[in-house]
């Protein structure tokens, strides 16, 4: 097992250094102050989001198929169990064949580790929570539409629908203010720092990497209805482990400053 993890760490480093020949489309976001459900000081201070770029759409089945063909160590059945659960790519027909799933639908049943490796393959990383929250606040004409009750109602309606069919194709609806597609209404999405969203109450899991960087879940504005959608995403991500996945859990990638390259990891 140690040899497997060392091999994966080396492979991840090569992905960072080399990147991929055909990366996805990215949109530049200016950053700025964010009135976050996770205040920077754990009380009420806004988060400061540095300028960054984000993939315009979730990674698709076709894009992930190309990735596992180029990096067979991430094919189903090849990744070590500590990096991918038995449900990894469970809906695919084969290790590198998404079968009947639409090629332009978002890939799901992908672990955090696999998503992180894909992003590293194109010189990127998973978005951090505040970056994702900043991007997800926009509608078609405004950078922050969270005070619009109609927009919030539209988003919340998606959460009320049962997840009984595979996700629809990406880019089926118009882009938002930043040029991003499907921030809501298609899939849940991994973030780089998902494991820091809440502190575990179990003393046996007091890994410093799992401590809440933002000073405690008590800061969440649970009484504010406009936060429900992002709070549900936090609740989902906080319950996950890096090797787990889900039928409606996908991802997109982000890029920050030149010094913000992803680092190979054996665990989040």
UniProtKB/TrEMBL annotation:
<dbReference type="InterPro" id="IPR016187">
    <property type="entry name" value="CTDL_fold"/>
</dbReference>
<feature type="signal peptide">
    <location>
        <begin position="1"/>
        <end position="23"/>
    </location>
</feature>
<feature type="domain" description="Sulfatase-modifying factor enzyme-like">
    <location>
        <begin position="33"/>
        <end position="255"/>
    </location>
</feature>
<dbReference type="InterPro" id="IPR005532">
    <property type="entry name" value="SUMF_dom"/>
</dbReference>
<dbReference type="InterPro" id="IPR051043">
    <property type="entry name" value="Sulfatase_Mod_Factor_Kinase"/>
</dbReference>
<protein>
    <submittedName>
        <fullName>Formylglycine-generating enzyme family protein</fullName>
    </submittedName>
</protein>
<dbReference type="Pfam" id="PF03781">
    <property type="entry name" value="FGE-sulfatase"/>
</dbReference>
<dbReference type="InterPro" id="IPR042095">
    <property type="entry name" value="SUMF_sf"/>
</dbReference>
<keyword id="KW-0732">Signal</keyword>
């Amino acid at each position: 097992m140690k040899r497997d993890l060392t091999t994966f760490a080396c492979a991840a480093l090569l992905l960072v250094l080399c990147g991929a020949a055909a990366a996805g489309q990215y949109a530049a976001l200016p950053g700025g102050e964010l009135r976050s459900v996770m205040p920077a000081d754990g009380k009420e201070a806004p988060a400061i989001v540095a300028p960054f770029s984000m993939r315009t759409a979730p990674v698709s089945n076709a894009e992930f198929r190309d990735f596992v063909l180029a990096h067979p160590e991430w094919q189903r059945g090849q990744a070590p169990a500590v990096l991918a659960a038995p449900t990894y790519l469970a809906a695919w027909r084969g290790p590198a064949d998404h079968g009947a799933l639409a090629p332009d639908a978002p890939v799901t049943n992908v672990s955090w580790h696999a998503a992180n490796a894909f992003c590293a393959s194109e010189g990127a990383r998973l978005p951090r929570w505040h970056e994702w929250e900043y991007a997800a606040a926009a509608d078609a004409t405004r950078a922050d539409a969270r005070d619009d009750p109609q927009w919030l109602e539209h988003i919340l309606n998606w959460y009320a629908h049962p997840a009984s069919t595979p996700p629809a194709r990406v880019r089926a609806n118009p882009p938002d203010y930043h040029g991003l597609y499907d921030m809501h209404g298609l899939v849940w999405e991994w973030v780089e720092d998902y494991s820091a969203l809440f502190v575990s109450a179990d003393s046996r899991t007091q890994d410093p990497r799992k401590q809440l960087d933002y000073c405690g879940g008590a800061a969440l504005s649970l009484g504010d209805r406009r936060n429900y959608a992002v709070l549900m995403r936090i609740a989902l991500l906080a319950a996950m482990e890096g090797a787990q996945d889900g039928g409606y859990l996908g991802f997109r990638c982000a890029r920050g400053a030149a010094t913000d390259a992803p680092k190979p990891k054996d665990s989040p």
